[in-house]
Design goal:
Layout: E1 3-8, H1 12-27, E2 31-32, E3 41-47, H2 51-67, E4 74-80, H3 83-89, E5 95-96, H4 105-112, H5 117-121, E6 128-129, E7 137-138, H6 159-164, E8 174-178, E9 180-181, H7 192-196, E10 200-201, H8 204-216, E11 221-225, H9 243-256, E12 262-266, H10 275-283, E13 290-292, H11 300-305, H12 312-325, E14 330-337, H13 344-357, E15 361-366, H14 384-407, E16 413-421, E17 427-432, E18 437-441, E19 451-460, E20 463-468
Parallel strand pairs: 1-2, 1-3, 3-4, 4-5, 8-11, 11-12, 13-14, 14-15, 18-20
Antiparallel strand pairs: 6-7, 9-10, 16-17, 16-19, 17-18, 19-20
Helix pairs in contact: 8-9, 9-10, 10-12, 13-14
């Protein structure tokens, strides 16, 4: 039995993609192994959006290629790849292909001359891979040039075939559902349009079918994925519903279903975030009261240089609408410090906005240029020492407001989804509907993957702690004061 192992780097989109890769490899007769040294087929889902992630790819493939001196080994790379990175990988990996071409992976393997279990049992033409549709997807037998570098316009030609593949979900209770791929925003700091192509929306009927199927299987936490989820459907015109209408369909299904689950989405763009989306979330129990709204900068001039196409005023209007319609909602964000030309005054505008919004969580990163993104052609004129100072100051503000909010939860009874064991021995880890991390003392592993009630006993910045209750009654998060 040939074993395989996959390294997944980057965002939730890559993690979701890896579940479809695993499904195809499982159907081909390969067997997953947690130990890469035991695998005969090794793959990486890379992320060109962050240099650190690309550095990890080079470190890994260097080790794998040394292993080839002692044993047979085949390597492949896919994921979010810039053309420049893809060209370099062609010289290092045996197979390199865009994720939208995953349906052709069995054919790529055959062309490479690898004998697989399915190849011994049946002809290539009859082999089928897991599909979410009634009819299974046949392996494409047309010649493929899987090492070619695709243009941006070609990246999503077969994305519907990819979405049709039935994932091999890694978790029994958490799942990702891709609703869109690619990006049309072209933020100057971002390489995503050059790694995933232009925006393409998945058919809403297929999204709903996947959602219903996994809810019926008992999944409790479901995240809709896209580079700009709230522009969902815009590329289809009148042929597809809007994002708010998609959420409404999900909410209505949740009301009709006897199952209990939370639905999240990431990431929206402030430019396309309408009040209709917020209103729909407020109306349905299964739509989780947590919103991730990327800020990037709290200064209008920096936002213009970033090509964000929204103002600070627009962002604050969205935040106020969230507080008005969903006062109990938690708000997460993304922030870049040290962007090209960012002055001390402009950075302090971001700090002031952080004080005004009081984010529950912020993913703060020091700016680093990425090849392909427009800003990579500009001078990276903020020193590393200043970037680190700004990272420290903004992180300090985040921890302060997170702690203030978390302290309000002490003494309250809150519903949580138990995720696994905690780093602290004898404790389990969970998260609230607002995705606040919480731990509680218990050695009952049967609770993992189920809802539970906790009475919150203590709080720290970015997390809380509670006691497990027996009662089925719980109380939802209280509004921020």
């Amino acid at each position: 039995m040939i074993k395989y192992h996959i390294i997944t780097l980057g965002c939730q989109m890559n993690k979701s993609d890896s579940e479809r890769v695993r499904a195809v490899l499982d159907a081909m007769g390969y067997q997953w192994t947690d130990k890469e040294e035991d695998a005969g087929l090794l793959g990486i889902l890379a992320c060109s959006v962050r240099q650190k992630a690309i550095d990890k790819v080079y470190n890994r493939i260097s080790k794998w290629n040394k292993w080839k001196n002692n044993r047979n080994l085949v390597t492949f790379a896919s994921g979010c790849l810039l053309a420049s990175d893809r060209q370099k990988f062609l010289k290092l990996f045996d197979l390199v292909f865009p994720m939208s071409e995953l349906g052709q992976f069995p054919e790529m393997i055959r062309h490479y001359g690898i004998v697989t279990p399915y190849g011994l049992e049946q002809s290539q033409e009859k082999f089928v891979i897991p599909s979410q549709k009634t009819a299974q997807v046949n392996v494409k037998t047309k010649p493929v040039q899987y090492n070619s570098v695709l243009k941006m316009s070609e990246m999503n030609i077969h994305i519907d075939d990819f979405w049709d593949l039935e994932p091999n979900y890694i978790s029994d209770f958490e799942a990702f559902i891709p609703i869109q791929n690619g990006c049309d925003k072209f933020c100057t700091f971002c390489a995503v349009p050059y790694t995933r192509g232009r925006e393409v929306s998945r058919a809403s009927e297929h999204i709903m079918a996947e959602l219903k199927r996994i809810v019926d299987k008992g999944f409790k936490s479901i995240t809709l994925l896209g580079q700009n989820v709230n522009s969902y459907g815009l590329d289809k015109g009148d042929e597809e519903i809007s994002f708010s209408e998609l959420l409404r369909k999900i909410g209505e299904f949740g009301d009709q279903s006897a199952k209990e689950f939370w639905v999240y989405f990431t990431s929206p763009h402030p430019r396309d975030m309408g009040e209709d989306v917020i209103e729909v979330i407020s109306q349905y129990k299964c739509l989780a009261k947590q919103i991730h709204l990327p800020l990037q900068s709290g200064d209008d001039k920096v936002l213009i240089r970033m090509n964000r196409n929204h103002s600070v005023e627009k962002y604050m209007q969205i935040v106020k609408a969230i507080h008005r319609h969903i006062p109990q909602a938690t708000i997460f964000t993304d922030i870049i410090v040290g962007f090209n030309g960012e002055t001390d005054e402009q950075f302090q505008n971001t700090i002031q906005l952080m004080h005004n919004v009081k984010f529950n969580m912020a993913y703060i990163a020091m700016y680093s240029p990425r090849p392909g993104a427009a800003s990579s052609r500009w001078a990276d004129d903020i020193s590393q020492s200043i970037k680190k100072e700004r990272l420290h100051e903004s992180s300090k503000i985040l921890r302060k407001h997170s702690l203030d909010y978390n302290k309000q939860l002490i003494g309250k009874t809150i519903k949580v989804l138990v995720k696994g064991t905690d780093r602290k021995e004898g404790f389990l880890s969970a998260f609230t509907e607002g995705r606040i991390v919480v731990r509680f003392k218990s050695d009952n592993l049967k609770l993992i993957g189920s809802f539970a009630e906790l009475k919150i006993t203590s709080a720290s910045s970015l997390s809380i702690e509670g006691e497990l209750l027996e009662s089925e009654k719980y109380y939802e998060l209280q509004p921020q004061s």
